[in-house]
Amino acid sequence: MIIEHKVVIADVKLVADFPRYILYWRKRFSEQPVTDFCSVIRINSTAPPEEQDHYFLLCDVLPEDRVLREELQRRKLTAILEQQQREREDTSFRGACMFCNEEFSGNRSVLLNHMSREHAFNIGLPDNIVNCREFLRTLQRKLDNLQCLYCEKTFRDKNTLRDHMRKKQHRRINPRNREYDQFYVINYLELGKSWEEVQLEDDRELLDHQEEDWSGWEELPVSTVCLFCDTRAEAIEKLCAHMEEAHEFDLPKIKSELGLNFYQQVKLVNFIRRQVHQSRCYGCRAKFASRAALRAHLEDAGHASLLPAMDAWDQPQL
């Protein structure tokens, strides 16, 4: 388009659905002149007229372009959230561990939690991941090509690669590899930003931005599960009230006392979910035979509100 038609599209990587974007403007350009929509950029302006050239810039300064981009992003995010919910509820998943080849079936969380627990390979909580099957295939392909997932160096054989990842503690993915952004829901909330970049922002600014962009949206009927039992609620306020009453865990109070920003709250919740899933008390580190036994311990010992030091859970991978 640049070479043949001298049309420059600004911030192409931020267009959520580029084929639909192109089809839309193809139709509009057939209806009206390109100059009705694009800014004209003249190059070689000091040269003789025959050597000057003009390019046409299409960007979201044009209200019509901005509305189109926002609508495409809205559709993309809705589709991603629906896919995420389907994967949360799916019980037909089948897959093998990338490190010991043990087979797993049921929900994807069984395999992901196994790799985290048994092999110290943590790619985040299952609920934060979308298109999990494709994600696992991508990781397996890299390992089959004898490539370290973290430093991305290639090795001569599987044993050398395995020893390298174990000794160097490289059993994790490279957070700077943008190929992985597509598999984390957070990257669909703000275009052009990785989870690392979003994490650095003040939560008030982020929440203000969300209020602006999400106003008028039709919310999906997605319920949230209690950190300690199977109780569900569609409103986070109701769930917080339940956890305070049933489990003596007051999240709003903890947030206030520790001064947690938005993403620190997310990481704390993720940390607690993982510990509870493993039937481990996050307060005293005691391991139990079942989640029921852990809940009894938390209630009897009052450890639901006993949090470890922040450096135990305030980590990027959580």
TrEMBL record:
Keyword Zinc on entry: yes
Metal-binding among keywords: yes
Transmembrane segments annotated in the record for this chain: none
GO molecular function terms noted in the UniProt entry: zinc ion binding
Residue ranges of every copy of the C2H2-type domain listed in the record: 146-175
Keyword list, A-Z: Metal-binding, Zinc, Zinc-finger
InterPro entries according to UniProt: ZN622/Rei1/Reh1_Znf-C2H2, ZNF277, Znf_C2H2_sf, Znf_C2H2_type
Family: Belongs to the ZNF277 family.
PANTHER family the UniProt entry points to: ZINC FINGER PROTEIN 277
Name the record gives this protein: Zinc finger protein 277
